Amino acid sequence: QLVESGGGSVQPGGSLRLSCAASGFTVDSYAIRWFRQAPGQAREAISCISADGNTYYADSVKGRFTISRDAAKNAVSLKMNGLKPEDTAVYYCNAVFGSGNYWGQGTQVTVSS
Fold it and tell me: Average pLDDT of 22-31?
């Protein structure tokens, strides 16, 4: 199970830290991805941290977002700085392993002045 938290409303330029808490598996055993979906748009992958700690960022968030893993909390965070209105979306975390494709319920991020 994956549970996201940390979303909210911020002004442009602001920051948020999203958290994805896992249960039933350990986050350092599998790649964990963050996706987002804006209204009327397809869900897009924006960041990933692999089991061995390698990270990936979409061009749209590179240099502003940072993904990290906290093994003690069994969670993956997404620190988002320099938020823009176009970052407004529902953010989801995802893990794929075995025969399963696991998603959290999503957390809303709204960037508006």
Answer: 92
